[in-house]
Design brief:
single chain, about 200 residues, Immunoglobulin-like, 2 domains, 5-stranded mixed beta sheet, 3-stranded antiparallel beta sheet, 3 helices
């Protein structure tokens, strides 16, 4: 902390000298206050995770997070509901730079609470806490077996029945239904020109 002191050696001071002494004292006090304000700073994100992160189980994903402040903020991760995102051996860990690593995994290691979840990065120091935007992560599991289902629909004779192809949630966004099979041999495809 800087201390400003003014010494007046003559009993008789001119008006200009007094104004100069007051201005110097005010300037010194302002500089000391500015330095003090620069010493403490709450966390500010330098890099936040994206809003969404889709990835493959064969690649994994790194969710970046970095922040600055004074004192230097500590980084941690939490789930979308605010619970700590603790390390899950071989699947989820925080890197030394504060980023969250969702490591590559085998299909049998898929965990919805890790691989289809929401996370926030949290930066904290003695001045305050900053919470990043929410990032929704979703892993697509390559080479995982799945089966689309069509369920029976009941309809009154003469009316139209609508059949839906039910695809499991973990692959739904990566699958496009391009046609139907009747009795495993007759292919039924949409007629785009007729709007069907």
């Amino acid at each position: 902390m800087t201390t400003a002191t003014a010494f007046v050696t003559k009993e008789r001071r001119s008006g200009a000298a007094m104004r100069t002494a007051v201005a110097v004292l005010l300037l010194a006090a302002a500089c000391a206050g500015a330095r003090l304000a620069a010493v403490l700073q709450g966390p500010v994100f330098l890099q936040e995770p994206p809003h969404r992160a889709d990835f493959s189980n064969s690649t994994g994903v790194v969710l970046p997070c970095s922040a600055h402040g004074n004192p230097a903020p500590a980084l941690r991760w939490q789930t979308g509901d605010g619970a700590p995102a603790l390390e899950v051996a071989g699947l989820r860990s925080v890197l030394p730079n504060g980023s969250l690593l969702l490591a590559p995994f085998s299909p049998r290691q898929f965990r919805p609470d890790v691989h289809t979840a929401a996370y926030h990065c949290v930066a904290s120091n003695s001045v305050g806490t900053a919470v990043s935007r929410r990032v929704a992560v979703r892993a697509a599991v390559a080479k995982q077996q799945y089966e689309a289902q069509v369920y029976d629909e009941y309809v009154v004779a003469g009316n139209t029945a609508v059949f839906r192809c039910h695809v499991p949630a973990f692959v739904r966004d990566h699958v496009t239904v391009t046609g139907w099979l009747r009795a495993r041999s007759q292919r039924i495809t949409p007629d785009v020109s007729a709007g069907k």
